[in-house]
Amino acid sequence: MSHNASRLVRIGTGPLADPEIGKPRRPIEGNTEFRSVNAFEGNEGRVLSGVWESSAGKFRSDTTGYIEFGYILEGQARIVDPDGTVHELRPGDPFIMPEGYKGHWEVDEFVKKIYFITHLA
């Protein structure tokens, strides 16, 4: 999926149509399921943006090789830094996970975010 650079790309934030279903690669606790839809791909696949949802659970994050901007749309979650600092995220909260970030997510029920990922290589 690539897009014409001269056209605006809108990201649908309602119910996800035909989402990709996945599981955490680094689960900690729970039977978490992810649902995501890419809305944009550019720069030969090195830039991605779309909507991601997660059911309840705890799982590790590892952004080695990329930087991610996120914006919480629905639900809530906590992202816990490796040093134990807890970041409560609710609708309207933006965040950036820098390259190499290795914290973990804690989702009590459900969370939905817009993401923008830039791969560095």
UniProtKB/TrEMBL annotation:
Residues 43-115 form the (S)-ureidoglycine aminohydrolase cupin domain. InterPro entries: RmlC-like_jellyroll (IPR014710), RmlC_Cupin_sf (IPR011051), UGlyAH_Cupin_dom (IPR008579). It comes from the Bacteria. Pfam families: Cupin_3. CDD domains: cupin_TM1112-like. This is Protein of uncharacterized function (DUF861). The lineage of its organism: Bacteria, Pseudomonadati, Pseudomonadota, Betaproteobacteria, Burkholderiales.
